Amino acid sequence: MPQLYKGRTCRKELPNKSNEEYKVKINVNECEIAMEIDTEASVSIMSEDTYKEYKSKFRIEPTSAKLRTYMEEQIPIIGRAIDNVNYKKESPKLPLLIVERKGPNLLGRNWSNKLQLDLEGYFLRRWK
């Protein structure tokens, strides 16, 4: 069962000069989606607001996944989508959980590993 683990997001671990989140734009089902890189999140999630904006581009299926915040609060899940993701030269089909809450879309470890994000280089460039 996928779960968000206790921990800190990247912006809290490695603050940058502008104190902004570490975001990347990813093409998901032909929609450019801003996602916050969260190395503590085991899965990638999309907020309900973003889902409503691009609803016609996503086919949602039921899921038995359970998510919790680092404060152990349960996060209600609308469903799961398997998406066509394009980032640089990578084009895998990846799972995305749609959650019933406001907030940033999170790019979790399940996507960062498949997309071969250069996290170290990304953070070092942003931190300078």
Descriptive overview:
The protein is of the alpha/beta class. The chain has one domain: Acid Proteases (Cathepsin D, subunit A, domain 1, Beta Barrel). Helices cover 20% and strands 30% of the residues. The protein has four helices and eight strands; from the N terminus they run H-E-E-E-H-E-E-E-E-E-H-H. It has helices spanning 10-13, 48-53, 109-114, 119-127; strands at residues 23-28, 31-37, 45-47, 67-68, 74-75, 77-86, 93-99, 106-107. The chain has a six-stranded mixed beta sheet. It has a two-stranded antiparallel sheet with strand order 4-5. The chain is globular and about 35 Å long. 27% of the residues are buried. The model is unreliable at 1-16 (pLDDT under 50). InterPro entries: Peptidase_aspartic_dom_sf (IPR021109).
Q: What structural class do the secondary elements suggest?
A: alpha/beta
Per DSSP E runs of 2 or more residues, the count of β-strands stands at 8
The top-level CATH class is: Mainly Beta
Major pleated sheet: 6 strands, mixed
Strand order of the largest sheet: 3-7-6-1-2-8
The CATH topology name reads: Cathepsin D, subunit A, domain 1
Would you identify the CATH architecture? Beta Barrel
Pick out its properties.
128 residues; alpha/beta; Cathepsin D, subunit A, domain 1; six-stranded mixed sheet; two-stranded antiparallel ribbon; 20% helix; globular; disordered N terminus; Peptidase_aspartic_dom_sf
Secondary-structure map:
Layout: H1 10-13, E1 23-28, E2 31-37, E3 45-47, H2 48-53, E4 67-68, E5 74-75, E6 77-86, E7 93-99, E8 106-107, H3 109-114, H4 119-127
Parallel strand pairs: 2-8, 3-7
Antiparallel strand pairs: 1-2, 1-6, 4-5, 6-7
